[in-house]
Amino acid sequence: MRAPLTNQAVSRKRRGRRGFVISAELVILMPLVFALAMAAIEFSLLEVGRQRVMAAARAGARVAAMPGATLQDIDQAVAFSMSSAPLAAARQIAVSQGNYTGDPVIIKVAVPMKAASPDLLGIIGFGLGKRVLVATSVMRKE
């Protein structure tokens, strides 16, 4: 006949089982927590990039609305207002200037999302791909 288990032996067995459950929970939940953290970082960086592209489009439209503005002046204003080398290097600008006072001036600035944020979610299949941040600003020519 076997000797009955003591309280210490029973508590050791329970502790061992509890440790396994905690380890299993960590294995299941850690990738999810990691993916959520990466998503928060990536979307924050994309929002900052979107704000910079919008500010750049506004700055370009302000310069384009002035009399005698050239495409080089507009491009410099857009690049300077982005204040980020990767964004400024990857920018694409479309300008539609009016000829007369009161005509609309339209500036469209496009930047690939990969220039604004690293592709942190590409590992799990939610990559940025060829997506683009676009901002358009319209002002009246002075």
Structure notes:
It is built from 4 helices and 3 strands. It is an alpha+beta fold and 142 residues long. It has one domain (7-140). The chain has a 3-stranded antiparallel beta sheet with strand order 1-2-3. A hairpin with a 7-residue loop joins β1 (92-96) and β2 (104-112). The chain is rod-shaped, with a radius of gyration of 28 Å.
Give a concise summary.
56% of the residues lie in helices and 16% in strands.
Percent helix range: 55-70%
Order of helices and strands: HHHEEHE
The assigned structural class equals alpha+beta
- How many individual domains? 1
The residue-averaged pLDDT reads 87
Radius of gyration: 28 Å
**Number of distinct beta strands:** 3
How do the strands line up in the largest sheet?
1-2-3
Count of DSSP-assigned helices: 4
Oligomer: single chain
| Weakly predicted, low-confidence segments | none
Give the percentage of residues in beta strands. Answer: 15-25%
Distance between the termini: 103 Å
> Can you summarize the main beta sheet?
3 strands, antiparallel
Helix-strand layout with pairing:
Layout: H1 7-65, H2 71-82, H3 85-89, E1 92-96, E2 104-112, H4 113-116, E3 132-140
Antiparallel strand pairs: 1-2, 2-3
Helix pairs in contact: 1-2
